[in-house]
């Protein structure tokens, strides 16, 4: 019963078992066990599921999942994004642009997501999400993310990142010298 509901809600949000497992900080096998009613998540995981899936406790634990009509959506205080730098899925509440050393062959601007989860000593967790050739393009991405949050969306796919190739362990190089639109949300 719970497992069937979780599977349905996860698929409605377009998440794989791996995506959901990474966001929860557990294994894909644990998600599989939840979905097959072989195990149940603890209360902390239920809260995280509720937040990631953008649903109420009743939707997750009740008899029938309710789809929220677009006209009744309330703004979201966080949004789930997959980093294009390390392929990690995370939930973020704020965003900022960091400027690197200007270069013709490497992107100069980095989009950073601020996590609601606190790190060691209560510090804000920051995650590198994507590279941008210009500040304007990075700020456009932030505006689109904020617009999605205002519409109550809980998942966003980065759309304006610079196309890069990894160079060595830490370096990146522009695949071309322009930003590209991967897909708009």
UniProtKB/TrEMBL annotation:
Which Gene3D superfamilies does the record match to this protein?
Answer: lambda repressor-like DNA-binding domains (1.10.260.40)
All copies of the HTH cro/C1-type domain together span: 6-60
Question: CDD domains of this UniProt entry?
Answer: HTH_XRE
Recorded hits in InterPro entries, A to Z, give: Cro/C1-type_HTH (IPR001387), Lambda_DNA-bd_dom_sf (IPR010982)
- SUPFAM superfamilies associated with the record: lambda repressor-like DNA-binding domains
* SMART domains reported in the protein's UniProt record: HTH_XRE
Top-level taxonomic group: Bacteria
Recorded GO molecular functions are: DNA binding
* UniProt entry tagged with the keyword DNA-binding: yes
Annotated keywords: DNA-binding
Q: Does the keyword DNA-binding apply?
A: yes
Q: Which PANTHER family does the UniProt record give?
A: HTH-TYPE TRANSCRIPTIONAL REGULATOR XRE, TRACRIPTIONAL REGULATORY PROTEIN-RELATED-RELATED
Name of the protein described by the UniProt record: XRE family transcriptional regulator
From which organism does this entry originate? Lacticaseibacillus paracasei subsp. paracasei Lpp123
């Amino acid at each position: 019963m719970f497992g069937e509901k979780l599977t349905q809600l996860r698929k409605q949000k377009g998440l794989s078992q791996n995506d959901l497992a990474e966001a929860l900080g557990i294994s894909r096998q644990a998600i599989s066990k939840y979905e097959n009613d072989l195990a149940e998540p603890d209360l902390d995981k239920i809260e995280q599921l509720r937040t990631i899936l953008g649903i109420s406790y009743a939707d997750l634990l009740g008899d029938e999942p309710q789809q929220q009509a677009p006209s009744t959506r309330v703004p979201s205080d966080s949004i789930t994004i997959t980093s294009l730098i390390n392929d990690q899925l995370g939930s973020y509440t704020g965003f900022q642009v960091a400027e690197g050393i200007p270069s013709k062959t490497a992107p100069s601007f980095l989009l950073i997501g601020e996590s609601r989860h606190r790190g060691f000593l209560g510090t804000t967790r920051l995650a590198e999400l994507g590279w941008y050739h210009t500040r304007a393009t990075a700020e456009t991405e932030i505006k689109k993310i904020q617009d999605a949050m205002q519409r109550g969306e809980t998942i966003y796919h980065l759309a304006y990142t610079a196309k890069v190739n990894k160079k060595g362990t830490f370096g990146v190089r522009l695949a071309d010298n322009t930003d590209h639109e991967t897909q708009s949300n």
